[in-house]
Amino acid sequence: MTPAIIQQQIVDATTEAATVTELHHMSDYTDIHGQPFLARDRLRKIYEGRLRGVLQRAPERTDLEHLCRSVLTSLAAVANDEPLYSWRAQTSSRRLSGISTPLRVVAFFPDETESG
Questions:
Q1: Rounded distance, CA 86 to CA 24, Å?
Q2: How far apart are CA 85 and CA 25, in angstroms?
Q3: What band does 67 get if pLDDT is binned at 50, 70 and 90?
């Protein structure tokens, strides 16, 4: 995976040119029983939990419900052997962060965190 791939994915999704400022491989792990625990499965569990939370505590937030469902749909399309990467990028007007594979963007968001 290269920053150029992420930059093209951002252009394809937003039409904005971007500079990737961080790019990290999301590692798979082995659980205490020696079974693989894939980064994709960890993210799926996180977003299933977020979706449950939104539906229980803020059902009026259809934007958050849609976001969680969209990420879960994207994750379902990721093959077991398809590596995931987290990234941050800067466009001319905003910072973004997201998760991608070499083949697709799984999710991206406005990045509200402080850099540095």
A1: 5
A2: 4
A3: very high
Q: Rounded to the nearest 5 degrees, what angle is found at the Cα of 107, between the Cα atoms of 9 and 61? A: 140
Write down the pLDDT at residue 112: 76
By percentage, how much of the chain surpasses pLDDT 70?
Answer: 97
Supply the pTM of this predicted model.
0.83
Residues 6+ apart with CB under 8 A from 114: none
Q: Would you tell me how many other CB atoms lie within 10 Å of the CB of residue 50?
A: 16
Alpha-carbon gap, residue 94 to 87, rounded angstroms: 14
What the block records as the tokens of 48 is 């299933």
